[in-house]
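So, is this right?
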Amino acid sequence: MDKAIKSANEAAERIIEWGEEHQFETCFERAERLKPCPIGETGACCKHCHMGPCRLVGKNAEEEARGVCGASLPTVAARNMVRMIAAGTAAHSDHARDMAMILLAVAEGETKDFQIKDVKKLYRVADILGIEFEGRAVNDVARDVALKFLEDFGRQKGELNYVKRAPRKTQERWRRWGIVPRGIDREVVEAMHRTSIGVDHDPDHLLTHGLRVALADGWGGCMISTDISDILFGTPQPVRAEGSFGIFKEDEVNLVVHGHEPSLAEMIVDVVNEPEIVEYAKSKGAKGINLGGMCCTANEVLMRHGIPTAGGFTNQELGIMTGLVDLITVDVQCIMPAITELSKRFHTKVVTTSEKAMIPGAVHIEYDEHRAKEVARKIVRMAIDNFPNRKVTGSHITQTYPLIGGFSHEYIEYMQGGRWRGSFRPLNDAIMAGRIRGVVGLAGCDNPRFPSTGVHRFLATELIKNDVLIVSTGCGSAACGLAGYLTPEMALEHAGPGLREVCEAIGIPPILHVGACVDNSRILTIATAMAHEGGLSDEIGNMPAVGIAPEWMSEKAIAIGAYFAASGVPVIFGGTSPVGASKEVTRIMTEVWFERFRGALHFEPDPEKILAMTYDYIDKARERLKLRKYEPGKFGAERVLMDMAARRKLEKVANTAHAGLGGINESEG
């Protein structure tokens, strides 16, 4: 890759160049100017007490270096890693707690602006949780579900409710090594205790608890949040949308929702279409109101409503620099405080909405789910009022890319067989026959210390060329979408012959957008369904699957990587290792974790080596499962893949039979 390029996205690079010409500083310039601390970058710095910070460096630091208290380098590196996992878990799970509280408020009639949109998903979740739902009022079921979820935060003994969703063999591994989470809050608090001065000093013991904390995130916070969002706002189905900076319109009010909590964004989606609000916008000289998304809130409203996205983490400053954003509303996580200072040089209003997060220089309008639409209308009106104030011409970009997002677990199951015969059998068969070499979860942030989104694009292109199906989330999805990679046509142009046949038969892109960063939990449930389907591994471990976070930067990404590793998926992070100073910690996270859980956590700065490691893990998994050796264009015997027309015909027959039987239960059909 060209080192001079700061972003692999052409539109982003044009705005960056324009900004440099006009003396606008962004994260890209700051990343060049501020070099990482070489000691802290590799986990060799301990600042957990005021005797330090202690720098554990030297020729034989692994064996000889000690902090003032005597802590070794492996101990310090392990503690640093566990604290990152705890912070990431706290972020996702605090989000989940808020979602559970909204569900409870809806169930108890305390808020009238939200309704339960997917009753079927509510009943599915209730069944998993062991809650009776037949013949009961919907809100009564929702109340029990919300309360059951809230138990997962404060539980002191026992196991998280959703542990039972994992394959039995995966659960057995967790219990054997003592990493089944009890309560989410308990595991986070215990992690902070264990990593404080004078407590746990055994690197393996520390990292084992780190995995327990991470599982509380993946099978707790993330999974809870995803399921509640589906219940309240609807389970996603594929929807067409657009991406890039060209989504902003010169003759309309441009309002951007940015952050991670979807409830306010859902209300704004409703409010911008209210006739009186639209008329108010016209009274200010605008033709209408144009809503766009940024970061993971963008993914939430994209996959449910087709709202266009301006991209991921590194695009937030660049969006303002188009000069067309009238207001950007932010809540929590991945918000750059730099946007408030930058906005002063344009006309953009920055509005913070969470009681947990304020930014100097921003307007604060606190969100309250009990008067959600009232808050949403106030924000939208503020954006409209600001429309006439545009004064600085920014870097106008007109190009957009079409994309398709919204592949939930439920839809992936449906698309392989229809409503009555949905399953994961066609996917398993395609993997066994060698049409699909394996599956990669391409996730994680985009990072200004790389040519931003460039590693995502490189890996995506090479993986699908070699018949690897990709599921993407978060900013990884944005990186693929803004490159034009999230369309079925992409399969025809770039996918290998086996993957292309599968995509053509089902009618899907070779890269499936499955949601926001919390929706990595969908990948866990998909892998579980594949294990239950049979024919591959009977656990998540040993699947021909790998997770990749090519340009990670946040603690949330570390928590996600750790819960995938604990669940049995090898994970590769791009860039340098935050614990690279310790060979022992690196060995534990790669060799020891793989031996115990069939998952691992690697850090690799070279994209070519990431690719090679990915193929190696996938091909060795195929070999262990005694599957046909992958050879491009050569496929073994398999069930016939039905195309969309054949599946619709089969579904029509099933519907007719269902009607003739008087409407039997779906699970019996």
User: Anything to note?
Assistant: The chain is about 50% helix and 10% strand. The radius of gyration is 24 Å. Residues 73-233 form a domain with the Substrate Binding Domain Of Dnak; Chain:A; Domain 2 fold (CATH 1.20.1270.30).
